């Protein structure tokens, strides 16, 4: 559909939700394939990690209790200690595999959705075979942006930890110190949320423009100006529903529903719900990019974006977009 520049510029939370639903509904076949090959495996990994982690943690806690009640240096103690060490190693390996697989499928699904919406935006034909050819190329740029963001998050958390240690050392447990400490925690969480939305928009920038890494983050911060509240609200809504899905699965699937048929049916329901949530999240982020561009009068020139996408799909030389240099006022096709 065609969305005028002024209409796109003024899109709020509900407008973005509606446009996301229209996009997915109008191209249901391609999004179903993306869901099946990229997002559904991500959801399987997410839900499987919950159950396997709960199982391993239960065994670890049980063996730790047995170890405490067993006399030291006895054969039984050594056996339990060895078993506990093996379980800790298995748990760490599980988390490492979970992190790696989640990273891979998250970036693959991000690049697939962003590329697909960009082709829909320019009115180009989009097929799943083209998506499969493009995703590995776009993925390389996203991985560089990811490691850049991780370095920023690490630096941010180290700085916050040093500030916390200094605060405790100098202020102790004074009432006034506790109050200020509470506000510091609020600012810390706000900083994490802001960096998260910068990262999400930077992923889209890495696919559709010539920026990646620190440049993509800088570009993302520029685009977010004036649209931070809308973006934060959508981010918090997505986080809330992710927590709801995780909590519901953990409570009813892992700790309840003794009947196997009911457990399988409920697992499938949670799987579909999580996959849908991830898909809509990717679409939201791409629409937010277009809204931010429009808000700053940087409507993407369809011809320039078309050449950029064809360079990905047809093995041509990479033709990057340059932000304001490749834009012109007009209408956006979404």
Write up what this structure looks like.
With 334 residues, this protein is mainly α. It has ten helices and two strands. It has helices spanning 5-9, 13-26, 28-68, 75-121, 128-171, 175-208, 214-224, 228-254, 260-295, 302-313, and strands at 2-3, 332-333. It has a two-stranded antiparallel sheet with strand order 1-2. The longest helix is centred in the first third of the chain and has 47 residues, at 75-121.
Main sheet record: 2 strands, antiparallel
Note poorly predicted spans. 317-334
- Determine the N-to-C terminus distance: 5 Å
Order of helices and strands: EHHHHHHHHHHE
SS summary, helix count:
10
Structural class: mainly alpha
Query: What oligomeric state is this?
Result: single chain
- Order of adjacent strands in the largest pleated sheet: 1-2
* Form type: globular
State the total count of DSSP E strands.
Answer: 2
Jot down its keywords.
1% strand; mainly alpha; 334 residues; 10 helices
Lay out the secondary structure:
Elements: E1 2-3, H1 5-9, H2 13-26, H3 28-68, H4 75-121, H5 128-171, H6 175-208, H7 214-224, H8 228-254, H9 260-295, H10 302-313, E2 332-333
Antiparallel strand pairs: 1-2
Helix pairs in contact: 2-9, 3-4, 3-8, 3-9, 4-5, 4-6, 4-9, 4-10, 5-6, 6-7, 6-8, 6-9, 8-9
Brief characterization of the structure:
The protein is mostly helical. It is built from ten helices and two strands.
């Amino acid at each position: 559909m065609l969305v005028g520049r002024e209409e796109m510029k003024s899109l709020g939370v509900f407008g973005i939700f509606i446009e996301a639903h229209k996009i997915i509904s109008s191209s249901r076949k391609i999004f179903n394939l993306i869901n099946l090959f990229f997002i559904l495996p991500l959801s399987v990994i997410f839900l499987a990690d919950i159950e396997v982690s709960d199982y391993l943690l239960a065994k670890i806690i049980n063996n730790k209790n047995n170890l405490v009640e067993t006399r030291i240096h006895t054969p039984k103690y050594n056996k339990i200690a060895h078993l506990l060490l093996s379980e800790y190693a298995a748990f760490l390996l599980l988390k490492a595999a979970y992190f790696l697989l989640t990273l891979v499928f998250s970036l693959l699904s991000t690049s697939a959705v962003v590329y697909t919406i960009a082709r829909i935006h320019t009115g180009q034909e989009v097929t799943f075979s083209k998506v499969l050819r493009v995703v590995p190329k776009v993925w390389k740029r996203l991985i560089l942006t990811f490691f850049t963001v991780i370095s920023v998050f690490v630096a941010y958390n180290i700085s916050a930890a040093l500030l916390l240690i200094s605060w405790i050392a100098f202020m102790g447990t004074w009432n006034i110190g506790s109050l200020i400490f509470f506000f510091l925690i609020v600012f810390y969480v706000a900083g994490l949320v802001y960096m998260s939305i910068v990262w999400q928009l930077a992923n889209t920038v890495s696919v559709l423009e010539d920026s990646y890494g620190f440049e993509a983050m800088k570009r993302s911060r520029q685009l977010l100006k004036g649209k931070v509240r809308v973006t934060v609200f959508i981010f918090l809504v997505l986080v809330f529903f992710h927590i709801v899905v995780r909590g519901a699965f953990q409570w009813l699937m892992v700790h309840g529903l003794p009947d196997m048929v009911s457990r399988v049916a409920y697992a499938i329901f949670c799987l579909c719900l999580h996959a849908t949530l991830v898909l809509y999240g990717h679409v939201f982020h791409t629409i937010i990019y277009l809204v931010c561009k429009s808000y700053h009068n940087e409507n993407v020139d369809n011809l320039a974006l078309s050449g950029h996408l064809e360079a990905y799909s047809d093995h041509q030389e990479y033709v990057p977009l340059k932000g304001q240099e490749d834009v012109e006022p007009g209408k956006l096709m979404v």
